[in-house]
Amino acid sequence: MTKSMPGAAGDLAEQQPDIWNAYAALGKACAEAGPLTDRERRLVKLALAIGASSEGAVHSHSRRARSEGIEDSALAQVALLAIGPLGLPRAVAAKTWIEDTAKK
């Protein structure tokens, strides 16, 4: 799994497997701590990445969402929902980051 991860996260996972495994275990525990579905968790993670203005995380969660069968229209709606709390410029930026990962 770590060899296929792009960028710095993949590098960290290969260089520090104990740290990566602990991080992955924490993520798994958090995911299992409540009633949200896989789909809901992925969309929430995308929204949090947008809120944090993390282009890399938005790319990652967008790619993962598509690989899990979440439609582009749902991803776009998450970006649009950011307009109210984050403002139009940040929401538009997020929408472009989501579109960056669309298969052309």
TrEMBL record:
InterPro entries: AhpD-like, CMD-like
Domain Carboxymuconolactone decarboxylase-like, first and last residues per copy: 17-99
GO molecular function ontology, one term from the record: peroxiredoxin activity
Name recorded for this polypeptide: Carboxymuconolactone decarboxylase family protein
Pfam families: CMD
Species classification: Bacteria, Pseudomonadati, Pseudomonadota, Alphaproteobacteria, Rhodobacterales
Gene3D superfamilies per the UniProt record, alphabetical: AhpD-like (1.20.1290.10)
SUPFAM superfamilies: AhpD-like
